[in-house]
Design a protein that fits this description.
Blueprint: E1 2-3, E2 10-11, H1 26-29, H2 33-38, H3 49-54, H4 57-63, H5 65-114, E3 119-123, E4 126-130, E5 138-140
Antiparallel strand pairs: 1-2, 3-4, 4-5
The structure holds zinc ion (2 copies).
InterPro entries: FP_C
Protein name: (apollo) hypothetical protein
Organism: Parnassius apollo
Length: about 150
């Protein structure tokens, strides 16, 4: 006679978990007596539901320190990659700005022709314009600045 670990029922026979060494009645063990008998020799390696669940991939993943370390390494690598991506992101921004400037420059040049502006040029990625050799230079940052051609 023993008491089932789960419900405390006193029973004469029931599966004994190979891992946690707790013994259950058949109802709590989740196996019928017939099926348990059929296990034959493998009865000695039977595991209770708790131990079976603990062996599932999800918990093995968390309980495995080796994997935890590898996760940390992966995180570090990811941070590294992200840091390397920052200059790339600003490069993409630069390209965007250049593309935008190109369109703006074309408009500025067209306008300059119409409005008789002598100079439209780019310096350090900035579009600059000047009506004549003696007039002040102004910067064209956006479409709004195109109004300065007057
Ligand atoms: Zn029980
Ligand atoms: Zn167990």
């Amino acid at each position: 006679m023993f008491s089932c670990t789960r419900c405390g029922n006193k029973v004469s026979d029931g599966p004994l978990c190979n891992l946690c060494k707790r013994q259950f009645d058949f109802a709590c063990a989740g196996i019928t007596e017939t099926n348990f008998r059929k296990l034959g020799e493998r009865r000695s390696t039977w595991r209770c539901i708790d131990c079976k669940n603990a062996q599932s991939p999800a918990s093995t993943f968390c309980n495995n320190p080796g994997i935890a370390v590898r996760l940390e390494e992966m995180q570090a690598t990811l941070v590294n990659i992200t840091q390397q991506l920052v200059p790339l992101a600003s490069l993409i921004e630069d390209v965007k700005t250049i593309k935008l400037n190109k369109a703006l420059l074309k408009k500025a040049k067209d306008l300059a022709k119409i409005k008789n502006f002598k100079y439209v040029w780019i310096k350090h990625c900035k579009i600059l314009a000047r009506k004549s050799d003696t007039s002040p230079t102004f910067r064209i940052k956006s479409e709004k600045d195109l109004l300065k051609f007057s």
